[in-house]
Amino acid sequence: MRNSNYPSQTEADRLKALNRYQILGTSAESTFDQLAEVTTRIFDLPICLISFVDKDEVFFKANIGFDHDVSSYKRDSLCNEVIKSKDITVIEDVFDIPELANNPYKVRFYAGAPLITNDGYRIGALCVMGYEPMKFDEKKQEILAGLAKLVMNQTALREQAGHLISENENIAAQNAGLIDYQQQIAKANRDLESLQDNFEILFQQAPVAIGIISEENHVFEQANQTLLNILGRDSALIGEPLSLVIPDLEDQDFLRLIDNVKETGKLVHGHEVRLLVWNENQLRSLYINITLQFTKNLETGGNSIMFILADITEQVIAKQLNEEANVVLMSAIDAGEMGYTVVEFATGKMTSNDQFKRNYGYHIDEQFNYPDLFEAMLPKYRQKIKKSVEHAIENNGVYRAEYEVKWKDGSVHWISAFGKPRYDMHGRASHIIGINKIIENR
Fold first, then answer.
1. Which among 257, 281, 315 is the end of a domain?
2. In a domain? residue 200
3. Kind plus residue range of the DSSP H or E element containing 352
4. Residues 6+ apart with CB under 8 A from 218
5. What are the pLDDT digits (tens) for 371-426?
6. Which of 9, 61, 256, 416 is the most buried (most CB within 10 A)?
């Protein structure tokens, strides 16, 4: 981590600016919670924290998805690191940083934007976290910075509201300054309307599909442009019941997820959910990942259900085609009496079909791993084959070789072998997929 020493006067001024907002130690507030919830949905990440950094503690004003029921932590935290720069702090893989790799929360990804006051003091952070490493490009960083400004605006509005309440009490006691009070109320209302407008812009331009339906009869109350594009509809969708867009709703998993939200009152997730929708007068089949939760309708005060979905139809179909192709391939391998294996380099363990074991003189019930393969190989071939595998790994190429193996009964056989390395997200060879066949009459 970076050096946490500050010039004492600068830190004293920062703490003075923080205390001006009188937010430390206060109870949860729906506006901050909603900002944090929207942030998790926009970036499809499980954790969002809105924090304010005191002298010795970090106070969490909003905590979404962090499974630790606390409101503050010691300042030796990533939130404290964020306030040391006006720029976005991004750690795409926390495990790459030795002092953070063993963090007890198993967090892999972290991004944080400082909360900056109008006079330039960094008093807190808006951060998102995940359990898998990920890229966080410049566009996403801009969105996170914009959300941090919204949080800071809400913090400032909260301070203004506190001042207005105090002034209202003075006016009630003194019965004076009514005109000035009304002007300040009008300004606060304009600021609140501006904040609501910012929420609306954020909602409409979000890169994920977001919709809100009423709890009672499932009528669309809001739908952003991304959702309208997926459904092939326009803004006339607002006010229509969900059943007009989704035929036979009662038979689809979507309704069961909605019922689950109503029954539990908790966040509900659906993975690879199949969904039939009417799109341009045609019935279209989609596959989606979806998250649903309760929210409040600010106009009516009633309960609504917000859902955020991602259209993964192409990925699911591609996976299905790949699975079908694998079935066909394995059938062809078996029909051709070919051996097939997957080798894990880290452990030397192999997952093989029966024919692969037979090709080395092993019974199908016997354990057969990578070291056993080289042990069965005649010694004069072993070093050459290892170099061929290394060459294929270095060049992301195909390994080809012919060599002799000696079975347990003493007989010697020729084998023709092929292999293709597989790599992990860091570009390291993790596995090799191989096939082979006994060469007859050589």
1. 315
2. no
3. strand 350-352
4. 241, 242, 243, 249, 258, 305
5. 999 999 999 999 999 999 999 999 999 899 999 999 999 999 999 999 999 998 78
6. 61
